Amino acid sequence: MKLIDLGDDFKLWKSDFHGVNENTRRFLERLTDAKNPTPLWKHQTEAVLRVIYANEILKKDNLLLNIVTGGGKTAIIGACIAWLKLSNKVDKFLILVPNLIVRDRLEKDFLVESGEKSVFQKFDLFPTEFKSLENELNAHVLQEGANPQGILESGIILGNIQQLYESNIAGKRNLDWFMNKIGTLSNFNDEAHNTPAAEYTKVLRLLGPKTAFRLDTTATPERADGKPLDSEMIMEYGIAEALDDGIIKSVVVYQPEAKIVELTYTNKLTGEKRNVTELDKEFEEAEKNVKPFQWIIDAEPMKKQISIALNRFEEQKRRAKDRYKPILFIVTMSIEEGKRVRDVLNKEFDLGRDKVLLVTEDTADEHVGWKSNGDPLTAREAATNLGKLGSPFEAVISVMMLREGWDVPPVSVILLLRKFCSQVYGQQVIGRGLRKIKEGDDRQILAVVDHPKLQHDWLWRKVGASGIRAVDTETVLQDEDIPVTPKIQKLVRLENLIELPSPEYETKIDFDAILKKIPKKEIAKNWKQILDSIRYEKDKWIISKTRIEQMRKLYVSKERRMEILPGEDIDVKNLEGEEKELTREGLEEMLKEAIVEMASDLLLEYGFGGLKKGELYNVIMDHIKLKLFDGKQLSEATKEEVEIVLDNIAEIKKNFTQPIVQGILGGKHAD
After folding, report:
1. Distance between CA 239 and CA 225 in Å, rounded?
2. All domains of the chain, ordered by start, with CATH?
3. Which of 8, 125, 137, 610 is the most buried (most CB within 10 A)?
């Protein structure tokens, strides 16, 4: 998305704030007062200045700020509300968020408990003579069952977007109140990249005529559907700048270079089993049957990834020195895999069940403990309190849940046990660990454990890691040093800038690469023909033994370097025999749950609303019947055939690419 250059006129305007009304001038004098005991960060002040200049001088009223996770977007929103309140333009402020987790975070700053400070009080945003206006900025939270009268009585209305959807009774009622019972408003659209969902877009469009001013904020301005946001981006403050200012943690990515030394073959239909080692003649041919995602799904390599992450976790705990409680954040593709990872942590690595929190769409409201006042504690509430010294949890496993808005600074290690297809989602996950644990000048790091087979090079390029530097192994066999503060080169003369092509990365030809050569419109149009041409293997190869030969460390900073380390000597136990065999009925229920989860995941990752879940579920199930059940219904399939489908779930999901899903769902998404 293109950044609008405000030019030299903006720099000149900052010297005297000419052209603004007197109340705005008084606010700006307060905002930029060097004697302010609780000033905003430099980039936050710059963001507010850009917003005011674009609105009052350039007369733009639909703006976007691209601010890195951990960059303090809430304080910027609060400052803009204070300015608008002072400028006498509008008295009603609607803050829209995509989910409950973002809403919970904003509640702490705008709907404060007795004795706490609001964002306006924390940063002393109102000049002394206007302090009384803070009393008019009381907040009302839109939630199921709440009286909509608060929409009229409150200055700030905070709610997740679903509370304005016409598809539910409460949402239809709330939207009617906004449309017919209140006047002009200002709209703050937090995490604005979520707007491609059809109903989200519809709500913003309906509110458009009543909206005097709209500000979108996000750390990932790319929409999941690949289209630009409809607001104008006037500021971009990314990872490189935030590292330079000491606002966020430095990121170190660990990737093991592993070699398969044994494969296990199983034919579900005949029951045939055999092991093939690297010494056998057929090993090279057998290795071709291994899919990239098996490096994180198959038990043995997955356990090694977990072991690497736990080693990094121990390093982070040593750094913490009991000042705070580091958290290991694990991301998986499916709920079933999340449960498997939790069981492995419990059984093999002795991380007790009371220390591992699983947060999924199904488990978010499950009871996982007790609050200090004796009330039940849900998984979602426990996730919000992670990292506090009183919390028992050390690791949290997320399945498409803990995304934007979930801000737990003690997240110190992230383990990626899934492939990211969406650039938005990949950056969001890394963003969960960027926020510094304690503010100050001390450098802090986020350790990310990835696997090169997942081909996340695009993600590390996106956040600034590239280049290879070999090092003497004798100098790296010790605890990881925190990267030094990077030196940022400043561009002085824009006219001398030469655009260089992105570095090339060697990748294997695969199904995704072939599809990329076909125009997306053609894929959307011929989605059924493409799906019908896909072939699935009915026998199964499992990676049963690997050897880690070396490790790579990528430093995400302006130093842009990579180090090669010796491999980690990791021994894993074989727990295959401990798995319980499910009945035919149990497998059928597991398959149905897996398809529902796949449909939800695809809709969320590609930026569609949840209302299309049933339609996508039916298409996926029809595809399975045709390709893996030989045309039979699920109820007619054998136990072995259902097991084959469950073994191929990741491959099935991989084939439902964004253009294919767009074609299935039709409408404007297929344009």
Report:
1. 23
2. 7-237 (3.40.50.300), 250-480+537-566 (3.40.50.300), 579-670 (no CATH)
3. 125
